[in-house]
Structure formats: C-alpha cells, structure tokens
Fold this protein.
Amino acid sequence: MDKPYKWTSFDAVNHIKISLRAKIGHCGTLDPLATGLLICCTGEMTKQISGYQQLPKEYTGIIHMGAITATYDLESDPIESKPFAHITEEELFNAARQLTGEIMQIPPIHSAIKKDGKRSYDLARAGKEVILDARPVTISEFDITAIKLPEVHFRVMCSTGTYIRSLAHDFGQLLGCGAYLQELRRTKIGNFEAKDALTPQEWKDLWKPKVKLPEITEPGHTHASPTDDRKENA
C-alpha cells in the first residue's frame, strides 16, 4: 500500500484486513508523518514478514535546517533556531558523506524502543530522562538532490533499523545549526517500489464488487496515537 500522510501503519493494515478478513501483518512500520510503501502480507505469507523486513530501503525527503525538534520531525514544534544561511553546498555534501557507510546511530527518544522494559516514548512523555544506546546501521547512499535553504532535499538507501529522523538530526548537528525531518517518503523496499503500490482509495475500488469497505476518512480516524506507531522508519 501507498500509505497516506498521517495514517498510522495500523490504519493501513486495518483497511486491507477489513476487505480480506484474513490474517495480515506489515513488513516495517512507517511513522504517521511519512508516506509511501508499506508491504503487507496475508495468510501463509505472514511467515515471510521477517525476511521482507531485512531488505534494504530507499527514502526521499526534506531536511529543514536551522532548528531542532524533540521528536526530530514535525510531530513537535521547532526550537533553538540558529542561522544557516552561511552554510555552503560543499559543507552540506561533506556532512552527507560523513553519514554514509556503516555508522553508529542513536535512535530518537520518541520511539518505541524499550528502555528498562518501557517504551522510550512513554518515558519521554512523562518528562523522564531517556538515554538510548547507539546501534550500528548502514547508510549505503545519502544523496542531496536539491538545496533550497532552509530545505535540503535528499535520497537515502539504508539498512533495516535506520531512523531517518535521527539521520536528519545528526546532519544538523554536524553542520552546527540543527535540523529536523520535514518530509519523508519510503520509495522502495528491496525490489518493491511505491509507484506500484495502491492507495487506500484504489484498494477500495479494487475490492468494491466483492466487499463493502468503510468510507475513506480523514487521518486520525482510529484511536492509535501517532507516536505509538513509531517503531522504526526502516
């Protein structure tokens, strides 16, 4: 499925589950503020989910320079504004190169990673100090595709477990002005591409003759919290 903006991955899976009335699972959570490819497996194919989850992933998006946010994206408000106009293209490309290859990455504290048996986002919401350990990820490609400061457009190929929000944050730290993830779209998982995925409306139209699906509603139509869907970007 081509997951819409502000839909949780649960929203997308539930939309398909209603039509199929079958066991279903997805192969890698997308943050609610991200769009793009979400692979879903049904029936016996759910046994293959772990294999699909290990496939490399491609993302495109926009990094916003000159501020940070607590969540590393626009789920929280930008703070700590700093000047960015002095940053050169060479410095931007150099920062991207420094974050390419096998790197150690600290996940956002507003994520579903468990710390002392509790989700780190629950601890962060409660105002408790959360320190997460860095973990190895592979950024095989980090291309800057356009520069329109404060916006930096990019394309990334990465391993599973990578947080693109953290990548954006680290990019801003390297340049000394701060940055956060403004926009994100997952375009590929292995050989699967978002251009071949169905939108919720296209999925509904496909199954219209067979089963009555609920009307497509505005985001936020489930009781799932946006942050509750934040297991990992990749």
